[in-house]
Write a structure and sequence with these properties.
The protein is about 30% helix and about 20% strand. It is an alpha/beta fold. The protein folds into two domains: about 140 residues, FAD/NAD(P)-binding domain (3-Layer(bba) Sandwich), CATH 3.50.50; about 210 residues, FAD/NAD(P)-binding domain, CATH 3.50.50. The strands form nine sheets. It has a four-stranded parallel sheet.
């Protein structure tokens, strides 16, 4: 098992049911499972990293047929059935399950990465939190009005669920959390731009849900710019132009750009494709068989964001947590069925729906199996989001801590983990202003 995300975690759990049939080795280059849907709450100071992560050894300490290894898979010997490791010690396998996920991509502009961090790991989240908080601190100290405005301007690239939730959280930070914390600036004066190249945000949701999300964001002071693509990013500005290419380029002075657009399959997934001759899509995801195995290699499964998991004739399984969870469960169950001599059905994805929270008591849902009740906004959407995330969060203690933090934040409108960590700790000030 390569990868301890949702796909690897649930595949390993499924294989734990076959203690007398299979031995499992789970390899990950990090020692923890991360609940990625709540990363943006770490990035915006609502939760601490430990609230949404659980050590893999702790999760599987009672699963006696499972060995957890901290290491990095760097290659694959498909003929010899060995995973090549960075420490030089190959790991043999009978069956390989690849669940290495994906990371953010910049569509051929990797030079933008230093100035526009994405959000896939704990390190990403704490770096994003540092930049957000540093921006307000810099604006408090900066005397030049144009530089202060740039520090108070935030640009979020990508109008999917992560971008929408980030924009909503930033709006809450500016309008509620930090409202009374500064003396030289008014945090509600912050300008937040959400930029999306398509004609609406949340493009996988029904159009009416996208419109509802837009209205809720605008109430928080977010400027939603659809049909707009980013053409340049540096440490002082973002340039955008109409996605249709029929307008002039506009420059937005800003010192804080947050990236929430596009994903690219992990490097190990691409090495699996090279070693097996498997086809990939533009994002590097492997095109798998209906049972999630690599064509010509029934002993290799690829699940979650590393694969193009089949669903509808014109659409693959979306890159959401449920896709990884269900793909991992299917791969684990298929291995056990094979060993028991049972029939192995193809993978069937069950769409449990989508929920995005936008702010305090607001959000949007698209849950088809709930009928009319599944397309909600506002308070009901927010409550559904709370319940779903608590259910899937790994670790009983984490659930209790998160519930308590959310309850406290709800009552006080505060964010308890507004810590500036990492480097640099101090903002670059061009013209310091004396304290008010």
């Amino acid at each position: 098992m390569i990868g301890g995300g949702f796909g690897g975690l649930y595949a390993t759990r499924e294989l734990g049911k076959g203690r007398d049939l299979v031995d499992v080795t789970l390899v990950d280059r990090r020692n923890h499972h991360l609940f990625q849907p709540l990363l943006y709450q770490v990035a915006t100071g609502a939760l601490s990293p430990g609230d949404i992560a659980q050590p893999l050894r702790s999760i599987f300490r009672r699963q006696r047929n499972t060995t957890v290894l901290l290491g990095e898979a760097v290659g694959l010997d498909a003929d010899g059935r060995q995973v090549l490791m960075s420490d030089g010690g190959p790991i043999p396998y009978d069956t390989l399950i690849v669940a290495t996920g994906a990371h953010h991509q910049y569509f051929g502009h990797d030079e933008w990465m230093p100035n526009a961090p994405g959000l896939k790991t704990v390190d990403d989240a704490t770096e994003m939190r540092r930049r957000i908080l540093i921006a307000f601190e810099a604006a408090e100290r900066e005397a030049r009005p144009d530089v202060r405005r740039a520090w108070m301007t935030f640009v979020i690239v990508g109008g999917g669920p992560t971008g929408v939730e980030l924009a909503g959280a930033l709006g809450e930070i500016a309008n509620d959390t930090l409202r009374a914390d500064f003396r030289s600036i008014r945090p509600p004066d912050a300008r937040i731009h959400l930029v999306e190249a398509m004609d609406r945000i949340l493009p996988t949701y029904p159009p009416d849900r996208s419109r509802s999300a837009t209205r809720q964001l605008e109430r928080l002071g977010v400027t939603v710019r659809t049909g707009t693509r980013v053409v340049h990013v540096d440490d002082g500005c973002v340039r955008v132009e109409p996605a249709a290419g029929d307008g002039e380029t506009e420059e937005i002075p800003t010192r804080t750009v947050l990236w929430a657009a596009g994903v690219l399959a992990s490097s190990f997934g691409r090495r699996v494709a090279d070693a097996t001759g498997a086809e990939t899509d533009r994002s590097g995801r492997i095109l798998v068989e209906p049972d999630l195995t690599v064509p010509g290699h029934p002993e290799i499964f690829v699940v979650g964001d590393a694969a193009v998991q089949p669903w509808k004739p014109d659409r693959a399984v979306p890159g959401v947590a449920q896709g990884g969870i269900q793909g991992g469960k299917h791969a684990g169950a298929t291995v056990l069925r094979r060993l028991r001599g049972e029939a192995t059905p193809p993978f069937r994805f069950s769409d449990r729906g989508d929920v995005a929270v936008i702010g305090r008591l607001s959000g949007v849902t698209n849950i088809g199996w709930l009928g009319p009740f599944g397309r909600q906004g506002g308070l009901l959407a927010w409550m559904l989001w709370l319940g779903i995330h608590i259910v899937y969060l790994i670790g009983f203690a984490n659930r209790i801590v998160v519930v308590v933090r959310w309850a406290w934040s709800f009552l006080t409108r505060g964010r308890s983990t507004r810590l500036i960590t990492g480097s640099p700790l101090l903002p670059p000030i061009e013209e310091p202003e004396p304290p008010a």
